[in-house]
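task queued by scheduler; priority normal; single chain, no ligands, no partner chains; default sampling; output format set to structure tokens
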Amino acid sequence: MSDIEIRDDREHGLLRARSGGEVVGHIQYFVLEEPTRALVAVHTVVEPQHEGKGIAGSLARELYGIAAAESVAVAPLCPFVVRWAERHPGEAPEASTDLLLAAKAALEADPDKW
């Protein structure tokens, strides 16, 4: 999708994709601080009329790009991001088991994180 614009709204834990001024999808995430700082992808949504246009993949790629720029890991709990990372190992370094367990525990302890 050539006219997609992705913006990080860290305060609200949203990575939003816009097209023509309209929000067409997002990844909801939170920042994990312990045992190490990481971006935890929790949920990916693409509006039904925009599915199949590569928006979710663009969002996942951008999330990993942000993490790389910040020198932090991504702990993917969202099933879509997990699958995307498996298909793009060169762009999506694998998260350690300990990091994934910590991310799951943080989410279970505070379901309002997303």
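post-processing summary
- The first strand starts at residue 4 and ends at 9.
- The beta strands are 4-9, 14-19, 22-32, 38-46, 73-76.
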